[in-house]
Amino acid sequence: MAMMAGSAGGGRRRRRSRQSGVINEINMTPFIDVMLVLLIIFMVAAPMMTAGVPLDLPQTKAAPLNSDATPVTLSIKANGQVFLGETELTDEAIVGKLAEVSKAGFDERVFVRGDKKVDYGRVAQVMSIVTTAGYKRVALVTEIDQR
C-alpha cells in the first residue's frame, strides 16, 4: 500500500509541473465559432445574389444546363422592361452593355429570363437583338416543374 500511495503522489507532482509550463495547444473553439457564423451568413446571402430582378418564371420539365462560368443574364419584367443585373436598359443599350460585361466576346453565354406574364413577342425581340449583335450562345431560363 505504501507503494501505491507513493506512485499516486508522484503523479500529482508531474501534473503540477505540467500546469506551470507553457500550453502548446491551439484553442480551436473560437475559430470554429467564427467559421460557423460566416457559413450561416453566406448561406442566407447566397440566394439573394443570384439575380437582380425578381421574376415569376415559367415552369418546364427541361433539365438544367451544366455551366462552369457565370453567364450574363438579361431579365425581362412583365411590363417589358429589360434589365442587366439590376440596371434597366433600353433596347438600343442592350448590345453596348453586353459588350462591356462579356469576357468571352461573342462566345459569352447569355441567359434571357422572361417573366411568364411578359408577351412572347417581347422575349423574341430581345433575343433577336442579342443574336443579331453576334452572340451565339443565347438561352432561355425557366424554373423546373416539380409536378
From TrEMBL:
**Cellular compartment(s):** Cell membrane
Membrane-topology annotation of the record: Single-pass membrane protein; Single-pass type II membrane protein
Q: Which Gene3D superfamilies match?
A: 3.30.420.270
Q: Name one Pfam family in it.
A: ExbD
Domain of life (superkingdom): Bacteria
- Keyword terms: Cell membrane, Membrane, Protein transport, Transmembrane, Transmembrane helix, Transport
Q: Which family does it belong to?
A: Belongs to the ExbD/TolR family.
Q: What is this protein called?
A: ExbD/TolR family protein
